[in-house]
Amino acid sequence: MEVKEILRNLREKNNLTQEQMAERLNVSRQAVSRWETGETQPNTEMLKTLSKEFNVSINTLLGSPQTLVCQCCGMPLSEDSFISREPDGTFNEDYCKWCYADGKFAYQSKDLLLDFLIKQMPNPDNQSDADRRALFDGHLSQLKHWKA
Description:
Radius of gyration: 20 Å
Mean pLDDT: 93
Helix content: 40-55%
Shape: elongated
Strand order of the largest sheet: 1-2
Largest sheet: 2 strands, antiparallel
Low-confidence stretches: none
Number of helices: 7
Distance between the termini: 37 Å
Number of strands: 4
């Protein structure tokens, strides 16, 4: 879906006219109209405002052009409800809500996360904990949060 369709759907889902949406965002009705026709797109600051005002991630507003992955644990962030939030309520699209919430990380070290993964992740091939730990560590080491 294109940005123009997403914005129109968002407005309609919230039962707003173009005028009401414009007032809510402090822009002109013409700006909303131009977004919905695809003549223009909201700038970065307006995308942040839209995200916060309508409780959707910027990635969703842009039509999910990238596959988001938690940069702490590697979990796909396939739904906005999985994405972490900053203390002010804005989305932090780098992390899942289980690894990062209210401005704090749940795992203070990679070893703590590895301990959690060893306990919680299925082991259908009956690999040793040491082998699984090495496998998980290799994946985690590729993520932004754990890169040296």
